């Protein structure tokens, strides 16, 4: 399986996927940590993939999304954005609305 196939499979088979530095339990960069805090605050289930474990994954996700930075959030197979976009959407209430529109269950 190529890295592109692996990434495509992950974003298709999980409702919410966060490509991040570190893990949801132990983020290893401030931007990844901010997105984890937002997702945890909203109460949405998600899969975190640590790009630090694989240079192939770290480079592959940037090519896959045509987006140069990490973290990257996918909802229902669709690229949503990085830390700044996620933070702005959350503050405006748009992130919670996106999850609702896509049928993703949130606890908050």
Automatic annotation (TrEMBL):
Belongs to the glutaredoxin family. Monothiol subfamily. It holds the Pfam family Glutaredoxin. The lineage of its organism: Bacteria, Pseudomonadati, Pseudomonadota, Alphaproteobacteria, Hyphomicrobiales. [2Fe-2S] cluster binds at residue 29. Residues 16-80 form the Glutaredoxin domain. Keywords: 2Fe-2S, Iron, Iron-sulfur, Metal-binding, Redox-active center. It comes from Bradyrhizobium shewense. This is Glutaredoxin. One of its GO terms (molecular function) is metal ion binding. PROSITE patterns: GLUTAREDOXIN_2 (PS51354).
């Amino acid at each position: 399986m190529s890295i592109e196939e692996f990434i495509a499979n992950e974003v298709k088979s999980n409702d919410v996927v966060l490509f991040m530095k570190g893990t949801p339990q132990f983020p290893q960069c401030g931007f990844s940590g901010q997105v984890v805090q937002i997702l945890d605050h909203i109460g949405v289930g998600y899969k975190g993939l640590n790009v630090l474990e694989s240079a192939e994954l770290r480079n592959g996700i940037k090519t896959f999304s045509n987006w140069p930075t990490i973290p990257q959030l996918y909802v229902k197979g669709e690229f949503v954005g990085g830390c700044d976009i996620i933070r702005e959407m959350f503050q405006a209430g748009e992130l919670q609305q996106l999850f609702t529109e896509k049928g993703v269950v949130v606890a908050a």
